TrEMBL record, chain A:
Enzyme Commission designation: 1.14.-.-
Xref: Pfam families: Bac_luciferase
Family: Belongs to the NtaA/SnaA/DszA monooxygenase family.
Occurrences of domain Luciferase-like (ranges): 41-406
UniProt source species: Actinomadura rayongensis
Protein's UniProt name: NtaA/DmoA family FMN-dependent monooxygenase
Enzyme class: oxidoreductase
From TrEMBL, chain B:
TM spans (from-to): none
Keywords (A to Z) from UniProt: Flavoprotein, FMN, Monooxygenase, Oxidoreductase
Organism expressing this protein natively: Actinomadura rayongensis
One GO MF term attached to the UniProt entry: monooxygenase activity
Family indicated by similarity: Belongs to the NtaA/SnaA/DszA monooxygenase family.
Sites where the protein binds FMN: T93
InterPro entries: Diverse_substr_monoxygenases, Luciferase-like_dom, Luciferase-like_sf, NTA_MOA
Identification of the protein by name: LLM class flavin-dependent oxidoreductase
Residues annotated as domain Luciferase-like: 22-213
Organism domain of life: Bacteria
Matches recorded under Pfam families: Bac_luciferase
Length: 464, 351
């Protein structure tokens, strides 16, 4: 093993543990056309899921966020699950019925006020007994900004600059109470020791406020910081500030390269390789046999890229109504509109915002060459997070290699079916992991920071 | 709108409404920032039969100098207790001036979903320099502040209607999860902001979250409940709730002595609000008289450990015996409890 151990920037660790989270995006290609699918907005569904995960000893439950409902050609997109709660509000509600599991809110630095968001996150952290996390995301498109006071104000190039300043300000607010700031008894001279709570201010063109925190540090000091961006700016933000990265680099080779790159960046910020946990997104499809698992994975994928979704997918690119075309027939013979893609895809990566005509030309060629229908082509070109498909034992073995080589520290599960995907993992995969010594058999700590086995906060977190 | 019945609301912020409450809470001052304290007070209010708990808040610390500087954000507090209660209404104060109207509407809609229809919103309009500085803005003048209150309430109400109740159709035949004709852009244009919509959250279970507005904001026509300072209910479109501050003692003299003792620790400035300094029986009498003209009251116990406890043990049982109030039924929405209809969706009505 040692001779072939890939360089991940951290030594091989035979005792490495798998850390698991669930990323509940809450919208998108979740399977809804199934009698077993739970209602997607009902609080009862969330309570069921989070209690299930707590039974499965998960580190964290994440909620996604998107600040505008997706559209297709100016109308709300009809085919996917849509509609979800405010993440902090929902996680506070779930904190009330759980005791251990970490609760991570995706929140945007572009369309929030730093002091307001820092206060709400700190409130969740305090009420949950130190179980809160913040998945830091940025948005640059004015389309999302149309819901906000300062819509579309931030240039693409400066969104991570704003995010960096925003996070630094939040950290300062979270550490602005000295640990023993509050009086021990009602007889004290004042409720808080004079000078023990410091006002924080920032006055730059990107972050401008003056505020005094009303919430002290929690049992874990401050919310655990997650970062998901994969661009250079995103990786730098992660190396500077994050405790956990939620990456898209799931395939083993990519995971190794990503880990090595990130740990090199960490070193430049004077941080140890263990001060950042790497948890890529992962779909998991389990079966009693490989064949059963593969069939299920195919069924799921075909549900997700249905005939109707295939048409809608190409409508985004053609910029026109294609509903008259047969998804089982050839590609539309009409030319696409000249204008580039509508950013209403919301999460459309920047490289897809230009050059669509060339892309369509490539697709035409491929479809012709391989004799693909609209539906076949959609299934061939839409990417899916490399899923882990197999028996529980096979997946556990693969994960052992992932964590022991330190390519990753665990996974953020992206469930296709709620709650079925998660029930499978808790009831079938977790025992296999435990058997291999890869997974806890009981929670050892109480806070999210403890679950993730992160080192104690640097002095910035707990001021003397 | 009144009768001989009274809806009972109570504000559960901190250790009580009096700035010196923390010295008389019988627990370490920091306890107020714990989940246990929050859960205990809300659960006691629900068991006692209150219709509604409110959570005061400001963007800046609640006090300065010797008084408490700590306070958990109100929306988060309300959400935290939403899953461990099943009948009491939960209404945080959220300020229109220091947040994004879109986030505010989303948070309240989400609270309504999490509580299965028990969310309220006490409209806050912080307009001072220190509050506005938390978002890097300057204090608005009175006219601009009023405009902002109207705009944010209007935007929130539009956003709550942006999804029709039957927007999710789950139609296997066509593969459609929802019907785009039932999810609407709101295209709201206010004086200082615009909102495109729709909300990211489906319509709240109550249709519209219950809006409580202080009378001083003068937005009766946009509120479900108006919070009135002083003894005159006046003729209002919305339900009128009297704001009542409370200091209790076994005798009136004892209550006055207690008030003086609290005030010696920290002054409790008087406003136009009613303040009852007296016995529980005297309070029952006051509430009985208020029931003639008001629809409800919001009580502000000076110290939760004392006045709130006495409300539960000595006041509510008497009111219940007299039929002056009725506890909400388990599973009821806040609108159900208040006898308010579930509003029609303005977009559905239009199409």
């Amino acid at each position: 093993m040692t001779s072939t151990t890939p360089d991940t920037g951290a030594p091989y660790d035979p005792h490495a543990q798998v850390h698991l989270g669930v990323f509940q995006v809450g919208v998108g290609s979740l399977i809804w056309d199934d009698p077993a699918a739970a209602p997607h907005v009902a609080i009862e569904t969330f309570v069921h899921v989070v209690k299930l995960l707590e039974r499965g000893l998960f580190d964290a439950f994440f909620l996604g966020e998107g600040l505008r409902v997706r559209e297709n050609r100016g109308r709300v997109y009809e085919l996917d699950v849509a509609g979800r709660p405010d993440a902090i509000t929902q996680l506070a509600a779930l904190a009330g019925v759980t005791e251990k599991i970490g609760l991570v809110a995706t929140q945007n630095t572009t369309y929030n006020f730093p002091a307001d968001l820092a206060r709400r996150l700190a409130s969740l952290d305090l009420l949950s007994g130190g179980r809160a996390g913040w998945n830091i995301v940025t948005t640059d498109n004015a389309w999302t900004g149309a819901n906000f006071r300062h819509g579309g104000w931030l240039e693409h190039e400066r969104r991570y600059e704003r995010a960096g300043q925003f996070v630094a300000a939040a950290k300062e607010l979270w550490s602005s109470w000295e640990p023993d700031a509050v009086a021990d008894s009602g007889d004290a001279k004042s409720w808080a020791r004079p000078g023990a709570i410091r006002p924080v201010e920032r006055h730059t063109d990107l972050v401008d406020f003056r505020a005094t925190a009303t919430v002290p540090g929690s049992r874990q000091g401050r919310p655990v910081l997650f970062q998901a961006g994969d661009s250079d700016g995103g990786r730098e933000l992660a190396a500077a500030h994050a405790d956990v990265v939620f990456s898209a680099n799931t395939e083993f080779g990519k995971a190794v390269a990503y880990a090595a790159d990130l740990r090199a960046r960490l070193a430049r910020y004077g941080r140890s390789p263990d001060s950042l946990r790497i948890l890529p997104g992962a779909s998991v499809v389990l079966g009693d046999t490989v064949r059963e698992a593969e069939e299920k994975a195919r069924w799921i994928y075909h549900q997700q890229v249905s005939p109707a979704r295939a048409i809608a997918y190409f409508e985004q690119y053609w910029g026109t109504d294609l509903s008259a075309y047969d998804p089982h027939g050839p590609l539309p013979d009409i030319p696409p509109s000249e204008e580039e893609l509508d950013p209403s895809r919301g999460t459309l990566p920047i490289e897809r915002r230009k050059g669509k005509l060339a892309l369509i030309a490539q697709w035409r060629e491929k479809a012709e060459r391989e004799n693909l229908s609209i539906l076949d082509l959609a299934r061939a070109v839409t990417t899916r997070h490399d899923p882990f498909v197999g028996t529980p034992s096979q997946v556990a073995d693969r994960w052992a290699e992932y964590v022991r080589t330190r390519a990753v520290d665990g996974f953020n599960i992206l469930p296709d079916q709620i709650p079925a995907s998660l029930e499978d993992i808790v009831d079938r995969l977790v025992p296999e992991l435990q058997e291999r010594g890869l997974y806890r058999t009981a929670y050892e700590g109480d806070t999210l920071r403890e679950h993730l086995a992160l080192p104690p906060l640097a002095p910035e977190g707990v001021r003397p | 709108m009144s009768g001989s019945r009274l809806f009972l609301a109570v504000d559960l912020d901190g250790d009580g409404a009096h700035p010196a409450a923390w010295r008389h809470s019988g627990r370490p001052p920091g306890s107020v920032l714990t989940p246990q304290a929050l859960r205990a007070s809300v659960s006691a209010a629900e068991t006692a039969g209150f219709t509604l708990a409110t959570f005061a808040d400001t963007p800046v610390p609640p006090g300065d100098g010797p008084t408490p500087a700590g306070r958990i954000e109100a929306g988060t507090r309300a959400a935290f207790v939403s899953t461990t209660t099943d009948r009491i209404g939960l209404a945080p104060t959220l300020h229109v001036t220091t947040t994004e109207p879109f986030h505010l509407a989303t948070q309240l809609a989400s609270l309504d979903h999490a509580s299965n229809g028990r969310a309220g919103w006490v409209v806050g309009a912080a307009g001072d320099e220190a509050s506005l500085a938390t978002i890097g803005a300057t204090a608005p003048d009175a006219a601009a502040l009023r405009r902002e209150v109207l705009d944010v309430v209007d935007a929130a109400r539009l956003l709550w209607d942006s999804w029709e109740d039957d927007a999710v159709i789950k139609e296997s035949r066509t593969g459609r999860y929802l019907d785009a004709d039932r999810v609407h852009h709101v295209d709201f244009e206010g004086a200082t902001f615009t909102v495109k919509g729709p909300l990211i959250t489906p319509r709240p279970p109550q249709g519209q979250v219950v809006v409580l507005a202080p009378a001083a904001l003068d937005v009766d026509d946009r509120a479900d409940i108006v919070l009135v300072d002083g003894p005159d209910a006046e003729d209002r479109e919305a339900l009128a709730f009297a704001e009542v501050e409370i200091v209790l003692g076994t005798t009136t003299a004892q209550a006055e002595e207690r008030a003086a003792r609290l005030d010696a620790d920290a002054a409790w400035p008087r406003s136009r609000r009613l303040r009852h300094v007296g016995t529980p029986d005297g309070l029952v009498e006051l509430l009985r008289s208020l029931a003639v003209t008001f629809d409800g009251v919001r009580l502000h116990p000076a110290v939760l450990a004392t006045e709130f406890e006495l409300l539960i043990s000595d006041v509510l049982p008497v009111l219940a015996d007299e039929g002056l109030f009725r506890p909400p039924a388990p599973g009821a929405t806040l609108r159900d409890s208040l006898g308010l209809p579930r509003p029609a969706n303005r977009f559905a009505a239009a199409s």
